[in-house]
Amino acid sequence: MRNAALAETPPYMVIPPGNQLLFIKCTLALLALLLLAVLVEMVRRRAQRKRLVRAKWRRAEEIAKRKGVSGEDWELLRTLIQRQSPLAPLRAVVARQHFDACVEAELAKLEDRGDLEQYETAGARLRDLRTRLGLDFVPYGQRINSTRELTTGQPLWVAPGAGATTNWFRTRVVEVDEAHFAVTPWRSSDTPLPALEPDEDVRCHMWRDDDARYAFTTTVVRFEKVPPIWVFHHTAELQRTQSREYYRLHVDQATTVGVLDRRVTRDITKLHQQPVAAQFGGTITSLSGGGLALLVDETIAVQSVLRVKLKLPGEDPFRVHVRVVNSEPVPRQRHRIRASFLDADEDTCDRIAHYIMHRQQLLLASEEKAGEEPE
Questions:
Q1: Which of 5, 216, 282, 370 could bridge 257 with an S-S bond, Cβ 3.0-4.6 Å?
Q2: What does the pLDDT look like over 87-131, one tens digit per residue?
């Protein structure tokens, strides 16, 4: 039987008995060479990754130094990145959300140790780093992901967390660092201050212009009586609700802003004839049927009347007059202005409303299509 099987095997596949040991040795040698090649490739790729990471570290340091980060602060930033994101140092200095994640993880460790003084010191220094790196600015129309991205002057309504009370108390944000944020009553009044004790849950809600409504729950750190200031813990659990009751269209349009002389703006029927007392550049950040929002470098008083150049797609630029209803400071020494239309005629209002409605329909259709896609 064995001879019959050998007879059926092609001659070129038969290994002479004397060469079987040599065949095994050659096979093992080939396998060893293959394994060596794999190991060499792994070492090469590992060395390449190390070179890339080192290059990213050098680039991250260059960016930090160019943005004014001192040597001492760079050591703090370098330590933070080494602990939380050693393989992606560049993202930690240029991407806001990645920097947030590093800060959150670092401060969580310090908080677990129970050293409040060190925790607050680190929070202040890390906030300075955020500002130096330019990561404290949230682009208009984009959402925020935690209370660390609040800005001073932001109105905030607060109420005790327990119960279903509707006695909301209006405050404004006066300070934000990476450890905590602080609020104070909106204006001094005879209204009794809410009794918010340390470690007590507090409900908050707010409206971010050009963005959406937010609601969240946090806890009180402490209360300072003079002036009255509540210090709160940060939270990343924000409930965001886009309000479409008054649809506001996000735009990014450079414009010219003229401030009219207050002494001659009482008759709104003759605004086009009034001279401009001051003129400067700005950016329209949102537009609605009732008004618009501006980003400017100048301080503009509430109730001021402005002449703003507006451009709708497919049309020639035209000018509208608006009255300032709110002005608040934003990072980089700029101001966000909300203003309502004053003398827009029926034709102008129709053109603006038609443009906003058209854009709204496109955006809603896009959202509905995205919602129908399988996860």
A1: 282
A2: 999 999 988 889 999 999 999 888 888 888 889 999 999 999 999
Number of domains comprising the chain: 3
Mention every residue, 6+ apart, whose C-beta is less than 8 A from residue 64.
74, 77, 93, 132, 133
- CA-CA-CA-CA torsion for 28, 29, 31, 37, nearest 10 degrees? 160
Query: What's the pLDDT at 23?
Result: 75
Do both 336 and 258 map to the same domain?
A: yes
The predicted model gives 343-363 an average pLDDT of 73
Question: HEC states along 134-198?
Answer: CCCCCCCCCCCCCHHHCCCCCEEEEEECCCCCCCCEEEEEEEECCCEEEEEECCCCCCCCCCCCC
Q: Cα–Cα distance between 175 and 173 in angstroms, integer?
A: 6
Strand duo 305-310 + 169-176: pairing: unpaired
Q: Cβ(213)–Cβ(206) under 8 Å?
A: yes
CATH number at residue 181: 2.30.110.10
Mean of pLDDT values over 335-358: 78
Average pLDDT taken over every residue of the chain? 83
- Give the model's pLDDT for residue 373: 41
Q: Is the pLDDT of residue 279 over 60?
A: yes
* Burial class (CB within 10 angstroms; exposed 0-12, middle 13-18, buried 19+) of 139: exposed
Tens digit of each residue's pLDDT (9 = 90 or more) over 138-159? 766 678 889 999 988 888 999 8
Sort 126 into a burial class: Cβ within 10 Å, 0-12 / 13-18 / 19+. Answer: buried
Do 253 and 347 fall into the same domain? yes
Q: What is the CATH number of the domain that holds 290?
A: 2.40.10.220
Query: Of 134-143, 166-175, 332-341, which gets the smallest average pLDDT?
Result: 134-143
Q: Phi/psi of residue 295, each to 5°?
A: -120, 120
d(CA 16, CA 333): 89
- Residue 212 structural domain: 147-241
Q: ω before 228 within 30° of 0 (cis)? A: no
Phi-psi group of 163: left, alpha or beta (phi > 0 → left; psi -120 to 50 → alpha; rest → beta)? left
Main-chain dihedrals φ then ψ at residue 224, nearest 5 degrees: -110, 125
**Phi, psi dihedrals of residue 131, rounded to the nearest 5°:** -65, -45
Contact 251, 212 (CB under 8 A): no
Rounded Cα–Cα distance for residues 235 and 162 (Å): 18
